[in-house]
Amino acid sequence: MNVTELVAHFEQAFGRQPAFVARAPGRVNLIGEHTDYNDGFVLPMAIDRDVTIVGAPRDDRVVRLRSANFGDEAGFALERIEKAHDGAWSNYARGVAHVLQQAGFALRGFDGVIYGEVPIGSGLSSSAAIEMATLMAFTAAGADGSAPLALAGAQAARLAQRAENEFVGVNCGIMDQFISSLGKAGHALFIDCRSLAYELTPMPRGVTVLVVDTSAPRSLAASAYNERRAQCEQAARTLGAPALRDVSVETFEQRRSELPDLIARRAAHVIYENQRVLDAVAALRANDVAMFGRLMNQSHDSLRDWYEVSSKELDAVVEIARGVPGVYGARMTGAGFGGCAIALVDDAQAGALAQAIACDYPRRTGREPKVYACVASDGASWSTL
Ligand code: GLA
């Protein structure tokens, strides 16, 4: 659905004209997986798939949001924000309203139609996109109607993350909200998840980022994610470091035997992955796509063998992709346990890769993949209509 169609939808639903459009993208992570909550480094890009809200401020402190995807409507009063049932899409919007008010922002109610084109539950951060789009909508609706809120960039991302951690109850790191907020067309974003310093890095020309959704359910993702976090914290504690970010590859190799085997394997992934992100950024700057691809491959193998968050479907995509000429590298992206894998491929070979996946993946897994060519895109924004 494009903005014109959403405007028509809004007019039909609310019997008046919308005043603003707010949007925020999903993301893929190119490299740096399970490093953000270890105060480490990540290199995601925002993708050309958004969550969009077309809306108009209200004179009271009520929010009414109608979903163009599901056809249902969520309404809540800003005075008393309660959680909807577990898994409800509106919890992301409610959570954002809740934390913005806690942080001292005076919010105005609005009516809105919300539409998402980020695949849901596929590891492309549809939830961060809803959070950032809602945050932009509150910004557009303005403080008491007098002026837009002064809220953007890293601060906006942190508030959206808090909504997810404290209200929705998912213990994610900062990466997804940060890239949805600060992505830039044609660029990946190198983020230091401790200092929140960041740097845009141009994407290489002539290559496509192909995203493959395994269409496999992400079972146990939340509990396994929390378990990995706890294992990383245990490793850092034992090594006397504030976070695994502070442990160099050399120190780790010297002291590895102090850790129980399983904990050492988890830590090994994070510590080497942090170094790979730094190497990948250097490779991008040097336009060394081959090196970048090799690092992607190493990242996947480490997530599969040491961190154990891949799945047979993700491994199948990666194996198929690596057998296609013109593919520089392939890896799972996001938390894992299902979801999506990405491949970096020469533009001229992207069609052949998509075809190889369409042909071999169902044969190997019995599932139908979804394949998207994604373009690095701009982060969240809003404008008046
Ligand atoms: C999920 C979380 C992120 C990050 C990744 C793994 O996407 O939301 O914060 O931890 O998993 O890299």
Q: Could you state the order of secondary-structure elements as H and E? A: HEEEEHEHHHEEEHHHHHEEHEE
CATH class of the largest domain, please? Alpha Beta
CATH architectural category of the largest domain: 2-Layer Sandwich
Enumerate the distinct ligands: alpha-D-galactopyranose
Radius of gyration: 21 Å
Write down the overall geometry.
globular
CATH topology of the largest domain: Ribosomal Protein S5, domain 2
Proportion of residues in helical segments: 40-55%
Major β-sheet, in short? 8 strands, mixed
- The N- and C-terminal alpha carbons lie at a distance of 17 Å
List unreliable stretches of 5+ residues.
none
Count helical runs: 11
Q: What does this protein look like?
A:
The chain is an alpha+beta fold. It has 2 domains: 3-203, Ribosomal Protein S5, domain 2 (2-Layer Sandwich); 207-374, GHMP kinase, C-terminal domain (Alpha-Beta Plaits), CATH 3.30.70. The chain contains 11 helices and 12 strands. Strands 1, 2, 3, 4, 5, 6, 7 and 12 form an 8-stranded mixed β-sheet that branches. It has a 4-stranded antiparallel β-sheet with strand order 9-10-8-11. Strand 3 (62-67) and strand 4 (73-77) form a beta hairpin. Helix 3 (126-141) crosses helix 5 (175-182). The longest helix is centred in the C-terminal third of the chain and has 25 residues, at 261-285. The model has no long low-confidence stretch (mean pLDDT 96). The structure holds alpha-D-galactopyranose (GLA). Alpha-D-galactopyranose (GLA) is lined by residues 29, 33-34, 36-37, 172-173, 175-176, 334-335.
